[in-house]
Amino acid sequence: MNLNNALLLVVLLFFSGQGYSNESLTINRLVVFGDSLSDQGKGYNKFYNTIPVSPPYWKGRFSNGPIWTDIIAEKYTVINEAEASSTAADYSQISNDPKYMIINTLKHEIDQFLEKSTFAPDDFVIIWIGGNDYATYEWLQQEDIGRVMLEIVTQTQRIENLGAQHILVVNLPDMGTLPIAREKGIQQKLTELTKIHNLRMQELFEETFDPAVVQVYDAFSDFKRIMDSPESYGFQNTQDACYSSFFWGVGGWTNSLPKKPSAELDSLFSMEYTLNPTDNFFKSWWWGMAESPKCEGYIYMDIAHPTHAAHKIIATMLDEYIMLHFNSHVDK
Fold it and tell me: Is pLDDT above 70 for 322?
């Protein structure tokens, strides 16, 4: 049995007999809200095609090849408002840090969608967000989990009230396994926080929503199966980043983790030059890679994002969930 068939069998066995289905469901569009795990170039365009530097990143995606939204778009029409660096909560309301004036939020992504479209009964909405709140910006206290969860629930209710009848909210994979967690020395903290986040999400969504309309996809369990048996999915390295440098391209390809730049350089790159880029400034720091690497055997492209190979598995699992739990018919 080849790898693709084995993967499909595992997914079918796991999902069979679970969840709620709508036998007559027709999906006209997939509408996606989220962060860099789902971003098909929106953030890249926002930052003048400079972040992430491409190559080595693939066409403005935070990976070395097409991501799950690109792959699933071969089957569905995808309307994608996901943007890199986005958070669930709006921290500009509680922090004076200027970065929170720049990054997007779940609420604002929905606002941007509504500026040009509306939700329809045959839309299928996917929300996958929250990782940046914790792993990137380090809002790690109990009240922070509550803030994130409240915003996700509030915006899901908003989407439902605006006419969407099929909504899938993705929980968080174990953030403690990310290379960035090891770099920061917060693996255990992020693992515990992920579990609390996911438990609260499951409890709140069961209390708040009709499962025929809104469901939670358990990405945590699926990723754990991959991490527990990586060879079964074609992976050999589950700890290191294939690309051990930064989104703007300083550095090179190694199996070690990057050294964090000085605070002055970090601020320079992330703020001043992002907002006022010179032609190919960031690419001038890239040391000669002409194309995206294959990253064979790696789960992680960089310290926070999966490789193309991992995204292919994500796309397969999400599509199987949609078909088995919502019994979809696709109009494209």
Answer: yes
Catalytic residue among 222, 302, 319, 325: 302
Query: CATH no. for residue 84?
Result: 3.40.50.1110
How many Cα neighbours within 13 Å face the side chain of 250? 12
The verdict on whether 174 is a catalytic residue reads: no
Residue 253 counted as domain residue: no
Does 135 fall in a domain? yes
317 falls within a domain: yes
Domain span at residue 130?
Answer: 26-227+308-327
Number of domains present in the structure of the chain = 1
Catalytic residue, candidates 35, 36, 38, 123: 36
In the annotation, is 97 catalytic? no
Catalytic residue among 166, 197, 305, 325: 305
3-class secondary structure, 314 = helix
Residue 269's Cβ-count burial label (10 Å; 0-12, 13-18, 19+) is buried
CA atoms within 13 A on the CB side of 67: 23
Is 123 contained in some domain?
Answer: yes
| Residue 252 pLDDT level (bands cut at 50, 70, 90) | very low
Residue 16 annotated as catalytic: no
pTM of the model: 0.83
- Find out whether 311 and 63 touch, Cβ atoms under 8 Å: yes
